[in-house]
Amino acid sequence: MKNFTYHNPTRILFGKGRIADLDDHVPDNARVLILYGGGSAERTGVLDQVRTALGERTITEFGGIEPNPRYATAMKAVDTARQNDVDFLLAVGGGSVIDATKFIAAAMYHDGDAWEILTSHGSVVGKAAPFGTVLTIPATGSEMNPGSVITNEEKGAKLAFMNAHCYPQFSVLDPEVTFTLPERQIANGVADAFVHIIEQYLTYPVDARVQDGFAETLLRTLIDLGPRALRDPKNYEVRANLMWTATLALNGLIGAGVPQDWSSHMIGHEITALNDTDHARTLAVVLPALMDDQRDRKTGKLLQYAANVWNINEGEDATRIDAAIAATRDFFETMGIETRLADYGVGEAGIDHIVSALKDHGMTEMGEHGAITPEDARRILNAAA
Ligand SMILES: NC(=O)c1ccc[n+]([C@@H]2O[C@H](COP(=O)([O-])OP(=O)(O)OC[C@H]3O[C@@H](n4cnc5c(N)ncnc54)[C@H](O)[C@@H]3O)[C@@H](O)[C@H]2O)c1
Predict the structure, then answer these.
(1) What is the pLDDT of residue 302?
(2) Nearest CA-CA partner of 274 in 264, 282, 265
(3) Domain locations in the chain?
(4) Where's the Alcohol dehydrogenase iron-type/glycerol dehydrogenase GldA domain (predicted)?
(5) Residue 133 belongs to what H/E stretch?
(6) pLDDT score recorded for residue 20
(7) How many Cβ atoms sit within 10 Å of the Cβ of residue 173?
(8) Which among 324, 328, 202 has a CA at the least distance from the CA of 258?
(9) Chain-wide mean pLDDT for the chain?
(10) What is the pLDDT of residue 351?
(11) Is the beta carbon of 136 within 6 A of some atom in ligand 1?
(12) What is the position in ligand 1's atom list of the atom closest to the CA of 137?
């Protein structure tokens, strides 16, 4: 196992009715900016629960944060926060609203061009406004991590940043608020969490028993419960387990002390920047092709994944690896997610664009060995065509 420091300061308020407990966790005298998305939080009644819980506090609201949140919109929210002298942010929504909130929290105190926060991957952030979240879609883990991904349409870029000042102070996880999710978003959330786990697990063995065992349990839970959430969408226990799985998938715990490979995400971000494909769907396209392409570097872990996640134990190594990759693709397809680039309208010209965007964004040394280049990504994308 590698050396690591692990610290996660986010308090989790999990379960039915927990939105009411915001009252205990937002400072009494806070001037709160509530941030939300395109209207689902209003329609589903979650925003009303939040307003009630905040009682007499001074509240400003900012709606309209897009899926794959836009830089320009987030900058408008920064202006709103400054104009209203806001000192606490509350994100109500999914990864997009939470990511935007992290960026806004950091940009509120940033002198100069806030785009630097993204291009520096967060290293210029010295301070951020305190914030909490009310999560409405289990998917990204953003509710318990310090990462954020922002899309700049003008620049055709989707970039991530991370900074320890950007952990939420608390996150409310009420599985009942996920009952209103459309099938497409249930599926996206499951696929996103699945690939988060894979990016921290499917590298090379370092004898990290706890992290591996934990990751395998989370993967098996998604494989078991993802399709059940589609069949039986009002099942509380299914939703509760999925919600906690997605949080644990990317709160730093399974990634501590192990090598990581975020190349599916880096390549996937460029697909979204190109044509706004849902984040999770880009991952479901890239991952199976990447696993196949990188099978020589990942042999040990691919065999472990085949055995411990899919119960594939028979046959030659190559046969077992083929079966595990096929099972992964089938799982995404069972969730209603197509796994080919052509399904999202990306052809040869699109692949050229993605490869040059990876170069422009400095993604020249991806993967757990830093050995995946943009030209390797071209080969992977051609295999995913
Ligand atoms: N910070 C991180 O660690 C991290 C990790 C992975 C991905 N991301 C980013 O997060 C974004 C995706 O976030 P997401 O997958 O959580 O989805 P999202 O926040 O984009 O939401 C997807 C859609 O679901 C709707 N929705 C949300 N909750 C709902 C509910 N309860 N009922 C009905 N509709 C609801 C939203 O209005 C939206 O239209 C992408 O930009 C991705 O790049 C961030």
Answers:
(1) 98
(2) 282
(3) 11-177, 183-383
(4) 9-175
(5) strand 131-135
(6) 98
(7) 23
(8) 202
(9) 97
(10) 98
(11) yes
(12) 28
Answer for the pair 315, 332: CB distance below 8 angstroms, yes or no.
no
For residue 315, count other CB atoms closer than 10 A to its CB. Answer: 12
Residue of 96, 102, 152 with the most ligand 1 atoms within 8 Å of its CB, for mutation: 96
Q: Say if residue 287's pLDDT is above 90.
A: yes
pLDDT tens across 232-271, in order? 999 999 999 999 999 999 999 999 999 999 999 999 999 9
Nearest-10 Cα torsion for 263, 160, 11, 242: -50
Residue 272 Cα: closest atom of ligand 1: 43
Q: Say if strands 31-35 and 88-93 run parallel, antiparallel, or are unpaired.
A: parallel
Q: Is the pLDDT of residue 32 over 90?
A: yes
Residue 144 Cα to ligand 1 midpoint, Å, equals 14
Give me the architecture of the 11-177 domain, per CATH.
3-Layer(aba) Sandwich (3.40)
Q: Which atom of ligand 1 is nearest to the CA of 99?
A: 1
Q: Please choose, from the candidates 143, 228, 142, the residue with its C-alpha nearest in 3D space to the C-alpha of residue 187.
A: 228
Residue 10 DSSP one-character state:
-
**Is residue 156 predicted with pLDDT exceeding 90?**
no
State in Å: Cα 207 to ligand 1 middle.
Answer: 34
Q: For residues 106-127, give the mean pLDDT.
A: 97
One fold for 11-177 and 183-383: no
- Is residue 239 within 6 Å of ligand 1 at its C-beta? no
Q: Nearest 5 degrees, angle CA 15-CA 34-CA 112?
A: 125
> Distance from the CA of 312 to the center of ligand 1, in angstroms?
33
For ligand 1, pick from 48, 92, 117, 137 the residue to mutate: most ligand atoms within 8 Å of CB.
137
- H-state helical runs in the chain: 22-25, 40-43, 46-54, 71-83, 95-107, 115-119, 183-201, 209-231, 236-249, 263-275, 279-293, 299-310, 317-334, 348-360, 374-383
The CATH architecture assigned to 183-383 reads Up-down Bundle (1.20)
**E strand or H helix at 171, and its extent?**
strand 170-173
Measure 206 CA to ligand 1 centroid, in angstroms: 32
Contact 283, 329 (CB under 8 A): no
